[in-house]
């Protein structure tokens, strides 16, 4: 997700939830990222993991943000006045004269919807999956759902081969000995990436040792 955000020119924003992290802290983080997207016009990817949802109120606020571009009650009194003043200044820099507070706030929410992209990650195998689908529908109908299953052995072998292709894995005798018990994975790797001829004998010996 961070790589895709970087490719598309988005800044990555995420919260650091802990035992001392409260709903008030979450509200402040939401205000910060919404100001960046809605006032400053910064394109931001808000990376939010289900582990950071310390209570149902966290998901309710995220659901509201995705559904309408705003979180009810997030900007009140002085905070709302400061937000509208910043929006008015931003509009004037673009040559627009807007005095109506309602119009300024609509401009703000439209900018949030345009510039803030939420990447919400969760494990569907948990028991709360069905409840979240019904209680927070915007997490699904306002997002593109990407399902990631388990990796096949061929993909694991390809990643391992790419990361180790420049490493010297031979021992002092100049031969490479596979770890005991790695016969199944080696078989998959050999099918995808045939080993050099000078290593074929040592690979076979390693498989026999693993079987013993």
What's the SSE blueprint?
Elements: H1 2-7, E1 11-13, H2 23-38, E2 44-49, H3 56-68, H4 78-93, H5 101-115, E3 116-121, H6 129-135, H7 138-141, H8 153-164, H9 183-192, H10 197-211
Parallel strand pairs: 1-2, 2-3
Helix pairs in contact: 2-5, 8-9
Can you walk through the features of this model?
This protein is mainly α. The protein contains ten helices and three strands, in the order αβαβαααβααααα. It has helices at about 1-5, 25-40, 55-70, 80-95, 100-115, 130-135, 140, 155-165, 185-190, 195-210, and strands spanning about 10-15, 45-50, 115-120. It has a three-stranded parallel sheet with strand order 1-2-3. Helix 2 (about 25-40) links the parallel strand 1 (about 10-15) and strand 2 (about 45-50). Helix 2 (about 25-40) packs across helix 5. It is elongated and about 80 Å long. The two termini are about 45 Å apart. Residues about 200-205 have low confidence and may be disordered.
Number of strands: 3
Rg of Cα set = 26 Å
Query: What is the tally of helical segments?
Result: 10
Distance between the termini: 43 Å
Beta percentage is 5-15%
Biggest sheet character: 3 strands, parallel
Fraction of helical residues: 40-55%
What is the strand arrangement across the widest sheet?
Answer: 1-2-3
What best-fitting shape do the alpha-carbon axes yield? elongated
SS class: mainly alpha
Mean pLDDT across the residues is 77
Order of helices and strands: HEHEHHHEHHHHH
């Amino acid at each position: 997700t961070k790589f895709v955000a970087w490719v598309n020119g988005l800044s990555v924003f995420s919260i650091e939830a802990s035992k001392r992290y409260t709903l008030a802290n979450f509200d402040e983080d939401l205000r910060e990222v919404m100001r960046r997207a809605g006032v400053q016009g910064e394109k931001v990817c808000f990376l939010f993991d289900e582990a950071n949802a310390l209570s149902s109120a966290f998901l309710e606020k995220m659901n509201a943000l995705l559904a309408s571009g705003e979180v009810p009650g997030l900007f009140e009194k002085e905070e709302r006045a400061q937000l509208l003043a910043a929006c008015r200044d931003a509009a004037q820099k673009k040559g627009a004269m807007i005095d109506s507070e309602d119009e300024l706030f609509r401009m703000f929410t439209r900018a949030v919807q345009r510039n803030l992209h939420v990447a919400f990650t969760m494990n569907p195998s948990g028991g709360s999956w069905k409840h979240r689908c019904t209680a927070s529908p915007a997490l699904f109908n306002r997002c593109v759902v990407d399902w990631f299953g388990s990796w096949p052995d061929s993909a694991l072998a390809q990643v391992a081969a790419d990361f180790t292709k420049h490493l010297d894995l031979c021992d002092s005798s100049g031969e490479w000995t596979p770890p005991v018990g790695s016969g199944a994975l080696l078989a998959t790797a050999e099918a995808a990436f045939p080993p050099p001829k000078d290593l074929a004998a040592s690979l076979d010996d390693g498989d026999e040792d693993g079987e013993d």
